[in-house]
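Have a close read of this protein, sequence plus structure tokens, and explain what the tokens say about the fold. Thanks in advance:
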Amino acid sequence: MGYPSSYKEIPFLRLLVPLVAGISLGIISRPLFDAAMVLSVVLVSFCVVLIALFLSRRWPLRHIYGVTLNLFLIIVGYSAVTLKPTASVLTEGKPLCVVAQLVEPPIVRERSVRMQVKLEGEWRNGLFYSIDERMLLYFSQTDTNAFDLQYGDIIGLRLKPKFPAPPQNPEEFSYKRYLARRGVFATAFVRNNEWLLVDHGGNPLFAFAYRLQENMIALLIRSGLKDQELAVASALSMGYKTLLDDETRRVYSGSGAMHLLAVSGLHVGLLFVLLSWLLASLKGTRSGRLIRFVALMAFLWFFAVLTGLSPSVQRSAFMFSMVALAEVTTKRSSIFNTLTASAFVLLVINPFNLVEIGFQLSYLAVFSILVFSPILTGMASPNYRITKRLWELLMVSVAAQIGTTAISVFYFNQFPSYFWATNLFAVPLATWSLYLLIALYAFAPVPLVSEWIGWLSNIAIGLLNKGLATIEAAPGATLQGLHLSGTQFMLLMLLLVFAIWWIFKGRVQRILVFLLVVAALAGETALKKIGQSKASEALVLSSYGKSAIVFVDGNSALALLDSSLYSNIEQRKFLLGKLMASRGCFSSAQYLSISDSTSCQKSLRTTTFAKGEGLLFADYKGQRIAIPIGDALARKRTKNPLVTDYLIVTKDCKLRPRALPKLFNPRVVIVDSSVPEWNATLIFASFNPSQTEYWHTLSNGYYRIGDK
């Protein structure tokens, strides 16, 4: 494979860039026009493009068509975003009687059964009003009938819509925005006996695929796979990841092997090569090639449906479809053009694919492999076949990592140090495991053979899991606490673009631009470090049933946590990891349990602590903060309550609400999210509302001391 000598060899890249620009503009800005106006603008701009095409035949006006086509694609990208619904048509908390259809199989969670449905309409005052909106429903696990529901079932039910809350803490993942980009704006809990099955419908192809998926999982169980070997086999062969537990996800993520569980180009490519080999005898005649093409296309897209039509599978299925088509037409196209064409099609279908992490990782990994792998592989030429294959695999891993490192750090704040060892070990073993699973499905009618293959599959996947767990547990396997600002991320993406540009064109000017971006990145990093070293803040975070009070001072931090959060390292990382990384103090942060914090000896530059019986006192930039602990202060008697700026009440405070005003005279009372709503109401009611401000982090989100 050679590099394109001109951008004219990648025509879809020229179309993709303005489309992406338009989609980006639509995502970061609010819609300026209604749907009718947007469609009118698209139609008018299309007519302008046709006129420009006619005018461009004249040499002096030859550039008009290119300019108008780019503007048209920007408008198309912008319109594709703005035409998508941006808010729910429902009213939060208003009871509804609706008819809904399941658009995916139910997913059993720890405490509930989750279902995504499409609302068909609402019964109101004896009339049926149409609704076209998706929604997430949660059924209790005590509702045994909910387990019998399947894709396509139509149900009637009563519910009260609830809108997902925006992020409650700094640097927190926005679940609300995540759902909105998938067209889901509301959720609801469905009580037992408040729903009934009305009918069954749905797309027959999807219904068949989901039933086949259930039968395949049942076959794996009958063949002897169990526990996390069963979970990994389901994810590896059909993209079904519901059975994976948190520990397995952590191991695969920390070792850099998470891509093995997300069905992608590796899986589709292996299956395409296998099926192509099986159908190789049909390549001799034109009719045989046509039959082979139809079989390959049918298999590729049915497998895509079976695995949930994720962006990576769609991209892979589209690319290999183009390869199969090229074999029929005997025409060859640049692999770069095929890749950009698939991205163009997927973005036109769903513009929000652009902000999907899987979509970004998938395309950057493949593009980076295509660009950098030949260069890296050519750096050495091993003499033996096995060492040559290992070298090629290693260089492919390095090439993929070049393209995806920035995104991995930006979104996940970590980097797998031993990704190269992971891929050298895991990719071959995962490949053989996948082939064993294919053989297992193929020999399902022969129980004795399928059980024997199942035994081999169980051993292979068990070795894969144990090997990755060993790599993940090695010292320094995962570099955590890494952070990139939005500016740093964009500069790194520019570096990647200019590096590829220089490889394609090889001109000195590209190196100069590359060095300018490096200088800008170095400057931004220095400014970020300086800002972090001077910054300080005190935060009372929000996490249901948990307490977290964080003091940040430069590159140092102290977090006061309730005992359950203090002892659960994974929950602690989930709540505080991204925040600490963004402040540059992930590795230096100190964590203390609030119940034991009276032994706190830590003093920060802007914060000092004083301990006392039943009380932790902090002075943050002259702001006095009192945190009562236990009930020791209930035995104290005082004529004058302690004057403080802030009183922070957590579940570790065992004082009665009416005792607090006798002991403290605060300007602001902050009740954290570990205290339930009813108790917070009693605490607030015990103070004089004309003299005291109130804040409950459970309902209002985090509180930044000194800013309110």
